[in-house]
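Table S2 (text version). Query chain:
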Amino acid sequence: MFLDGIELDRRLMVVDGSNRFLTAREMPELFAVRCLVIEGGYVLLAPGMRRIEIGRTPVEGTDATVWQDTVKAGSFGRDIDNWLSSYLKREARLVSMTEETHRPLRMTPGRSYTFADTGPVLLTAQASLDELNERLDKPITMQQFRPNIVVKTTIAWEEDRWDRLRIGEVEFDVGAACDRCAMITIDPATRKRSPTAEPLKTLATYRKVENNHVYFGLYLVPRNTGRIFLSDELEVTKHKAKPRFVNVVPPAPKLIGTGLLEKHGISTEPAPVKTLALDCVAVIEEPGDVKTFRFRTEPPQPVKYFAGQFITLEIPHPGGKTARAYSISSSPSRPHDLSISVKRIEGGVGSGWLHDNLRVGMRLKASGPVGQFHFLKRPGRKVLLLGAGSGMTPMISMLRWIVDQHVPTDVVLHQAARSGSSLLFTAEMDLLARIASIPVRISHNLTKDTECDPALRGRLDDQMLARICPDVDERIVFCCGPDPYRSAVRAMLGRRKNFNRINFLEESFGSTAQTENGAVGAGSDLAANPDVSISFPGADRSVTARATDTLLTIIRGAGLEIASGCQAGLCGACKCKVISGEWTLSPSNVDPDMSCLPDDEKAAGYVLACSCCPTGDMQIALA
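Corresponding structure-token output:
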């Protein structure tokens, strides 16, 4: 151990064409690059690439930028740079620290350190990871946190109070707690990002401090050089006060990991996405200008999916064909029957064609089922299902499946509708509630009908929510419906001090824009024309981009500069101003309120580029 960190650790760095650092935050492919230390140099390996060997000493000097620091460094020549550029499919170079490299360590004035993110040495505790995994539906390994040192402790998070410690021959000051970013949402083994921004999303519910930093681990600053060995004991020589974490709420009881789902023969493994040929076998008129279309596959085969997922239909269109996504209303427990329930939308291409043209015996092509909004995404022992309009389609799928499978959960289902004549699936839901082996409560509110219980008249509000579900703080909440409805529910739950925001899931299909079938996201990223036009008047530049990309990706792809940090909607570094156009939160966002932005900036149109995706053409001003 040296004063600036572990020998050879973080002495090499990949930079882009402007000599600015590249990390796995934006290039997960870097996780697959292996660097082997050999006598006098290094060997680099990467999937699909030839082995390449370089010397320990750089061949020429250069500058390199890490965050706000521009320092002297050394490069290794064109061969390794071409190798990296070919692998990453973008201009890239390899640089090294040299004797001239001096990067100031801000947490300890007068000291310098390596190309490491914030501090010389990163320490984490296994007990704290174990406690975090108790909260996650899918446990993770310590590799996602990339520590230098892992210690075994008996109490989770006891490291919060450490201020100075000794391991082996080396004494350390605790320079700072490690504030986490979107990097930890990438699995180093698969190089894939978590579609639900885990584990950062869960950590943010109980490890976030006033400045919106989310802590896991400690940055250590060595006070002396020395050796550390595996199994050395750790001695804490000085303590300090624990950080003050804000908005801490205990998690709701979960089902995954308890063995209860397995006991009931319920699989949590997703099915592969398929291309399906669907024959229409029935068309059912429902209230509120909704039709249910029932299908069977050809050739007949069971279709595996999760309750709440959607399929994408290929629909004939005068200009060719178009694709539209619709939530499945049937139950996975009846795998030979696949149904969608679609509300006719004025001017809607997909819903209009289905209502006017689809008849029994006709065949459509489909893909799926897919989607991150489903019961097994976050199954709880208590759930609240909230649906409005045709946002009831995934809710009836969940209820049918829960009752059919005797899933050990307590269900409250509440429907919002304009009038009694537009309520969907009421007779069936009442029957399911009567025959269910588990507690099921059904209720509704009517926004336009005056001939109903006054307590359930009008829009869903805080008082009505408390009346229909007094224990909402203990439940996983699934919500689907038009954007104003979901926004109102999100705000209601946000006002509840004891509700854990991570327990709120809304239908999105990767978007939060209201769409044709009344469920969020239908026809968004899976629509036939997902490209949007993004213009930057201040830079006199316009680009065509994918609606599934974040504004941060689009801005950088346009060759424009923008700062960034956590890439999860926490730090505020990447704020920009929306001049015109609409956007949706990206799946990587862990703070839907964008609380790092002042209210006046949000009112003025400022958003976080890392956490927003366009839902149409936009004009952006860079801050």
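Notes on Table S2: The longest helix spans residues 392-405. The mean pLDDT is 89.
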